[in-house]
Amino acid sequence: MANNKLSQLEQAVGADPHNAALRHLLAAEYAEAGRYDSAKAEFLHAIALDPGAHVARFQLGLLLLTLGDPAGASRIWQPLEALGEEAPLWHFKHGLEALIRGELPACRRDLGEGIARNAANSPLNNDMRLILTRIASETASVRTDFSLYGGG
User: Fold this and answer.
1) Cα(52)–Cα(20) distance, rounded to whole angstroms?
2) What pLDDT digit, counting tens, does each position of 13-62 carry?
3) Residue 72 buriedness (CB in 10 A; 0-12 / 13-18 / 19+)
4) What's the whole-number mean pLDDT along residues 77-105?
5) Whose CA is closest to 61, among 46, 42, 80, 77?
6) Quick one: pLDDT at residue 52?
7) Span 76-90, mean pLDDT?
8) Three-state SS letters, the chain
9) Do 101 and 119 meet the contact criterion of CB atoms below 8 Å apart?
10) Per-residue pLDDT tens over the stretch 94-150
11) What is the rounded CA–CA span in Å between residue 48 and residue 35?
12) C-alpha 145: how far from its chain's center?
């Protein structure tokens, strides 16, 4: 079924290559299928076509983080700073950057605040809750292999 959905999205993007929303969906499907290089490329296409595709930008950063590139994630997330404190993605960005620095209380605070403010994207809230659950179960310091935290 997932392969069929992926094929349909590839065809749709082929028919409408300048559609940022389709590229975002294709990127998410590639990530789900473990095709990370393709996912990164499609997220980048989506962002290039629509610089206001903030969720695509955030998800690309999350993918980079889970692939062990926290510096790349922070670079990709930088434009989300302009969204301001009212935006859930601003809090998610800050929470994950706190996680990168090993500042777990700040991570928990910001991810929790982002979840509280995010009524529009429940799957993203679920990803953030998963990260919160995993860091709550850590007995030592934050792991440097961010792929263990999941997401995406």
Assistant:
1) 10
2) 999 999 999 999 999 999 999 999 999 999 999 999 999 999 999 999 99
3) middle
4) 97
5) 77
6) 96
7) 97
8) CHHHHHHHHHHHHHHCCCCHHHHHHHHHHHHHCCCHHHHHHHHHHHHHHCCCCHHHHHHHHHHHHHCCCHHHHHHHHHHHHHHCCCCHHHHHHHHHHHHHHCCHHHHHHHHHHHHHHCCCCHHHHHHHHHHHHHHHCCCCCCCCCHHHHCCC
9) no
10) 999 999 999 999 999 999 999 999 999 999 999 999 999 998 886 444 444 444 444
11) 20
12) 16
CA angle 1, 30, 2 (to 5 degrees): 5
Tokens of 73: 């994630």
Tokens, residue 97: 């950057």
pLDDT of residue 137: 82
Tokens of 115: 């979840």
